[in-house]
Design a protein that fits this description.
The protein is an alpha+beta fold. The chain has one domain: 3-Layer(aba) Sandwich (Aminopeptidase). It is built from five helices and five strands.
Length: 168
């Protein structure tokens, strides 16, 4: 059977609301399990509620439904390209429930995000993918995304972040 490249109707993609926080945290936990990183999830509903819908929001979330059933989500925020002189949309997480995959929902979320990026004046859209996640890599290459092999992501977190903030 050939792979579907467009979602089966009816698909709904909408901006998450504060009422969606329990759903978002459940998607985050499922994503972490898929990525073999469950041990790293420390987010709670209260932390997400404040971070996504509080006074100073750090990101936005799209939720995706297939025939009224929660199917996936995308969490994104804006970065800035000094070379382009414009903001960029950074996709932090995109997740489709395993039983909903192969129906074009991931692609539909990416299309929706690309439309937001275009409509909001972004110069690019970026994200990271685990090097073993072949289904995602295949999807990304299929939409024209290219890996940025010459760049290495660095991260400071936990104790190292505290030490740096203290001037160390």
């Amino acid at each position: 059977m050939p792979e579907r490249t467009t979602p089966e109707p009816p698909v709904e993609i909408r901006a998450a609301t504060e009422d969606d926080v329990p759903l978002i945290i459940s998607f985050i936990r499922e994503l972490a399990e898929y990525e073999r990183l469950s041990h790293e999830v420390v987010a709670t509903e209260d932390v997400l509620r404040e971070s996504l819908f509080g006074e100073r929001t750090g990101a936005e979330v799209l939720v995706c439904y297939l025939e009224g059933t929660p199917a996936g989500f995308a969490l994104f925020f804006y970065n800035f390209s000094t070379f382009l002189g414009r903001p960029g949309l950074y996709l932090e997480d995109l997740f489709v429930k395993p039983e909903m995959r192969g129906r074009g929902l991931g692609r539909a979320l990416l299309v929706h995000l690309a439309q937001l990026a275009r409509d909001r004046g972004c110069g690019r859209m970026e994200w990271s993918v685990l090097d073993w996640n072949e289904p995602a890599i295949k999807l990304y290459k299929g939409i024209g995304a290219v890996p940025m092999d010459e760049w290495t992501v660095y991260r400071v977190t936990g104790e190292a972040l505290e030490d740096l903030a203290a001037g160390g």
